[in-house]
Amino acid sequence: MRDRPLQLLDWYDVHARSMPWRVPPADRKAGRLPDPYGIWLSEVMLQQTTVAAVRDYWRKFTARWPTVSDLAAADDADVMAAWAGLGYYARARNLLKCARVVVADHGGVFPSDRDVLLTLPGIGPYTAAAVAAIAFDRPETVLDGNVERVMARIHDVHTPLPTAKPHLMALAAALTPQDRPGDYAQAVMDLGATICTPKSPACGICPWRDGCAGRIAGTAASLPRKTPKKAVPVRHGFVYVVRRSDGAWLVETRPDTGLLGGMLGFPGSDWSDDPRPAPPVGADWRRLDATARHTFTHFHLELTILWAVVGSDSMPEKGFFQRRGVFTPAALPTVMRKVHDLVAESLPFGG
DNA sequence: AAACCGTGGTT
DNA sequence: TAACCAAGGTT
């Protein structure tokens, strides 16, 4: 069998996926490396998130904040609004923290060392290795969901995740080449994303098919094994949508920690088995004849929507009014945007 | 160390 | 359609 990394790099030279932040293999071989800021931004956005979902957000962020210094100087609310809809909002809070540390402690220059990168907010083992390898061509080993799957299959590893993770890491590290480590890292992930897919891998066209123990054993499609997850419960809650007579919307900035931390939203009850309404302002409340349903990572949510129209002298106990032109549903996390859309289509208020 | 933390696409 | 899944990190 020919050298596995070289086999994969030859495949990558032909089949590399094109991405806005990526430098194609031909250019990288000529010595060109990507902007570390763009790679860091892409890697944070790509955490548990598909390439398709990230593309437009990455373009929007780099157009508005072209350098890490620009991002570090941004207003928190602008960054959170720009991140709205992408999910895992702690990433956006850590993104800002990280940018500010890079400016304050590293002169606005991204560190190239994996262990230094690991000290930065929002950068864990995967992202530190990815930035070092992809942006600086350091021989670091990335272990993401793709690499775990590929390693489990070519070595026919039956130990379930996450127990198997250290073993899979050792197997992946043993393959990482000294030459073109950045392309190699991207190549394994492209292989996992396009050939060695979770459900029905395309073993027939895989550059690693010859030495793949999982394919030979007939177990590939069932690997990696994973310990079963718990069923997600259903929780309930109330949201309060207040329109002022001039069309302004009552919103609040959610606390920095916890679910949807730091994001804009409509005030509401807690989300529990037995929530109690606690309206943010005295008003003639009416119940909307529609329920907002949304699924988070660890629970389903059913929200009862209460709405009211108040006068221009209204002084809410919670939140603040955003006028027309300032308020935009695009700045809301998806569950709140669903609430907004249900209200907007039920109450023709002129947007 | 297990729980928490979003969303949209695929099966 | 409900479950699964995606370039994970933090506490």
TrEMBL record:
InterPro entries: A/G_AdeGlyc_MutY, DNA_glycosylase, Endonuclease-III-like_CS2, Endonuclease3_FeS-loop_motif, Endouclease-III_FeS-bd_BS, HhH-GPD_domain, HhH_base_excis_C, HhH_motif. One of its GO terms (biological process) is base-excision repair. Its cofactor is [4Fe-4S] cluster. Binds 1 [4Fe-4S] cluster. It comes from Loktanella fryxellensis. Coiled coil: none annotated. It comes from the Bacteria. Its EC number is 3.2.2.31. SUPFAM superfamilies: DNA-glycosylase (SSF48150), Nudix (SSF55811). GO terms for molecular function: 4 iron, 4 sulfur cluster binding; 8-oxo-7,8-dihydroguanine DNA N-glycosylase activity; adenine/guanine mispair binding; metal ion binding; oxidized purine DNA binding; purine-specific mismatch base pair DNA N-glycosylase activity. Adenine glycosylase active on G-A mispairs. MutY also corrects error-prone DNA synthesis past GO lesions which are due to the oxidatively damaged form of guanine: 7,8-dihydro-8-oxoguanine (8-oxo-dGTP). This is Adenine DNA glycosylase. Residues 45-194 form the HhH-GPD domain. It catalyses: Hydrolyzes free adenine bases from 7,8-dihydro-8-oxoguanine:adenine mismatched double-stranded DNA, leaving an apurinic site. Belongs to the Nth/MutY family. Pfam families: EndIII_4Fe-2S, HHH, HhH-GPD, NUDIX_4. It is an enzyme of class 3 (hydrolase). The keyword Iron applies. Keywords: 4Fe-4S, DNA damage, DNA repair, Glycosidase, Hydrolase, Iron, Iron-sulfur, Metal-binding.
